[in-house]
Design a protein that fits this description.
Layout: E1 2-3, E2 13-19, E3 21-22, H1 25-42, E4 46-50, H2 62-70, E5 75-77, H3 89-94, E6 113-117, E7 122-129, H4 142-151, E8 158-164, H5 168-177, E9 184-188, E10 198-199, E11 205-207, E12 212-222, H6 224-233, E13 241-256, E14 262-269
Parallel strand pairs: 1-6, 2-4, 3-12, 4-5, 7-8, 8-9, 9-11
Antiparallel strand pairs: 2-13, 6-7, 10-11, 12-13, 13-14
Length: 270
């Protein structure tokens, strides 16, 4: 368990900021410039950033991971591209705050969850990959998430799940399965923020997708012409980073400090 001091220790409520997929080095620079200020402005106690594309489609490098952690991310979650950067596998093994999906095969580099003590709470963060229309095709995440919750039972106060998946139905099914067992559940991967932020019946805060952190004048962070070429010709091509101002999509989950139930799910853009 890593210990990291909270930026803002709320007495009656805890605020968790989740930031959507970082799609480029420009996204990293944007968070370097702005994330700590956003944390201070909104009184954020804990921040998780999905960084699977931080090195632009090729996973996340150790350098990118360390920059994001210095910039205000307490934990970096991953996704289907995380393992593509072989140079980062050693970092995945060595840095507890950098995650890859928990349902990769046994023996894969890295780990799928971590517990961070921020003083006001011990936070368990789990990262999982969905199965519907996803590549690679991994085992169902349910038994892996169940095992993590069982293994760490008594060692955490708040649980967070990043479900990196394509299908909103799959994300919702997972959310309802863990309603009341995991405090905050959000989806990543599609790079488009959804409008379905909600509080489930047993107090879990949920949204289907956070969105992204990257250049906005493109297609999901990539240059329009390079995406259209591949779509129209079906030929392999090299994607290029989009242009335009960088924006970050995120969600703030507010939790009652006594009950640990989510009381507000609020989307932000910065």
């Amino acid at each position: 368990m890593r210990h990291r001091k909270s930026w803002h220790a709320n007495v009656e409520k805890m605020k968790i900021l989740a930031v959507g997929d970082v799609t480029s080095p420009g996204g990293i620079l944007h968070l370097e410039k702005n994330l700590w200020a956003v944390r201070k402005k909104f009184g954020i106690d804990f921040c998780i950033v999905n960084g699977e594309n931080a090195s632009f489609i090729t996973g996340i490098s150790r350098e990118a991971a360390e920059k994001l952690l210095r910039s205000g991310a307490d934990v970096i979650s991953g996704g289907n591209h995380t393992m593509q950067n072989f140079s980062a596998h050693k970092a995945l093994d060595e840095i507890p705050e950098v995650l890859r999906p928990i349902n990769y095969v046994e023996g894969a580099a890295g780990h799928g969850y971590t517990v961070v003590d921020i003083g006001v709470a011990r936070v368990l963060v789990i990262n999982a990959l969905g199965c519907v229309h996803m590549d690679p095709q991994l085992d169902s995440p349910y038994p892996y998430v169940d095992r993590a919750l069982h293994t760490e039972n008594g060692n955490y106060d708040i649980a967070i799940l990043d479900i990196h998946a394509e299908a909103t139905g799959e994300k919702l099914a997972i959310a309802y399965n863990y309603d009341g067992k995991i405090n905050v559940i959000f989806g990543t991967h599609t790079h488009v923020p959804t409008a379905d932020g909600r509080i489930l019946p047993n107090g879990t805060g949920y949204i289907s997708d956070l969105g992204m952190c990257g250049e906005g004048d493109g297609i999901l962070g990539m240059e329009v012409s390079s995406v259209l070429y591949k779509m129209k010709t079906k030929l392999p091509g090299k994607f290029k980073c989009a242009e335009g101002d960088v924006v970050a999509d995120g969600v703030i989950f507010t939790l009652d400090d006594r009950t640990r139930r989510v009381t507000e799910v609020k989307r932000i853009k910065f």
